[in-house]
Amino acid sequence: MSGNKFIKGAAILGIAGVIIKVMGAVFRIPVTNWIGDTGMSYYGFAYAIYGALLVLSTAGIPVAISKMVSERIAVKEYKNAHKVFKVATGLLFGIGMTSFLICFFGGEWITAQLGNPGAALAVKAISPALLFVPLFSAYRGYFQGRQNMNPTAVSEITEQLIRVFVGLFLAYKLMDIGVQEAAAGASFGASAGSIAGLGIIIIIYMLNRKTIHRKIDLNSQHVEETWDILKKIVIIAVPIIIGSEIMPIMNLLDAGIIMRRLQATGWTLEEAQSMYGLLSGFCSPLIAFPQIFTQAVAVSLVPAIAAAFRVKDTPHVQENVQLGYRVTMIMAFPCAFGILALGEPIMLFMYSQQPASAVAAVPILQIMAISIVFLASTQTSVGVLQAIGKQNLPVIHLGIGCIGKVAATFILAGIPAINVKGAAIGTLIAYIVAMILNNRSVKAYTGVKFNYDLTYLRPFIAAAVMGVCAFASHKLMVGFLGNSVATLAAVMVGVIVYAILIFAVKAITIDEVEATFPGGTKIARVMRKFVK
Q1: CB 72 within 8 A of CB 222
Q2: By C-alpha distance, which of 236, 195, 173 is closest to 395?
């Protein structure tokens, strides 16, 4: 099956993402318990600003590298593929340096304008990462364009490991000085991790240098001009950057809108900070977990579809599009229903030292859980459109969705009974609009025909039944096992039930597992002993 390489790449990134998120939980849970919702508001602000600036260098340009490298390798232009990487690396260094200077020297002004000046120290602490992350994202884009996801996985795990260790150490040591300082210490972990990530991927590149240059040295095709490559990178990257900047900017606007609207409708500054902390510190990290898998699919789709599209292999393009959507929905639906069913137990498990805040965050979390499916579909469609050279369309579509988001957040956050939940509802609206518009464009430009029963209905049914079983099992066990054990057991029940049901409803077959998944032959051999 032609989707074999793409699925394996997605699996590698997905596994790496799980490891990273587990380490992230190891980091987030104690830090949140140490510094509380006020401290998390500082930390959350720093990451929101960091994320908005980082998108400039890590969103569009690595995708452009991946797409352009894969296209050139597809037609055996190895020198041009490598030159794309070199030109892009220089461009990313310039952008990274500029972003670092803005963040480091403008931290006080930015946080003051957004109504949370206490976050300034955390912003300064995270600013070095803005210089180093862009550099190793160039290497990641290059390896991804060669459809080799291993260097990305190794560098991301290394980055996260150092981030967690350094961030926890500094947050703990600085707690005696103050919450602002502890939040800054936690933020500096990202800077330390980025240095480690860059170092490890450079080592991987040097170990592979002879293999990479063997084909380059034997290749005699015309070498593209630097300026032409730069223009092509910009043409591909700028729309993606704009589109990727929309949500971080919306999150920054959310922060400002929420803080100001809550205070305008009777909440104190401390209460507003606490509510924003629930959204950014308690809920957002958990909702980000399913994106590991869906983003892995989108990243792997770009080079796979771009290479096929370059040589006009339409059946291969359509096959990868269909498979990408199916895999995404198979992962997104159980994540959404799992969080809906076990939202409160999971929050109490993660934030046991702050049970009141954990319970208060549950309604926000459940609204955000619904958006998982729409975000997953949106991410996959964005990957497809980027791969076929229609990167402008997702920008326009998400922009339309975000107009609705801003309006909904402004109106709903000003209603005392809804308050910060209005931001979650606004995000849901944005993703629904973007998904509908993107999917329409995917069908128009690839000619793909979706099997809605296979892609959406069957995973939905399996996930809904799984959610009921997980909820019921937790209720049965919590009385005598306690919340922590009962929650873990309920999650395992959900995983087992869904794994059985996904094959029972034939959302995926054993033959497909054997043909496309890493180690598929061994997995299929075991599964056939239980499923006839």
Answers
A1: no
A2: 236
Q: Is the pTM of this model over 0.85?
A: no
Q: Is residue 178 part of a domain?
A: yes
Residues in the chain: 532
What angle (nearest 5°) sits at the alpha carbon of residue 487, between those of residues 481 and 489?
Answer: 75
Transcribe 363-385 into DSSP letters: HHHHHHHHHHHHHHHHHHHHHHH
DSSP state at residue 390? -
- Distance of alpha carbon 26 from its chain centroid, rounded? 18
Q: Is residue 511 part of a domain?
A: no
pLDDT, tens digit, for every residue of 101-148? Answer: 988 888 788 878 777 787 888 888 888 999 998 888 889 888 888 878
Place of tokens 């959900």: 494
Q: Rounded distance, CA 194 to CA 162, Å?
A: 8
State the Cα angle at 517 between 512 and 521, rounded to 5°: 75
Name the domain count of the chain: 1
Show the tokens assigned to 257. Answer: 């809108």
CB atoms within 10 A of CB 60: 24
Q: Taking residues 19-27, report their average pLDDT.
A: 76
Cβ atoms of residues 186 and 163 within 8 Å = no
Does 117 reside within a domain?
Answer: yes
> What is the residue whose two structure tokens read 């043409």?
235
Structure tokens at 380: 């996959």
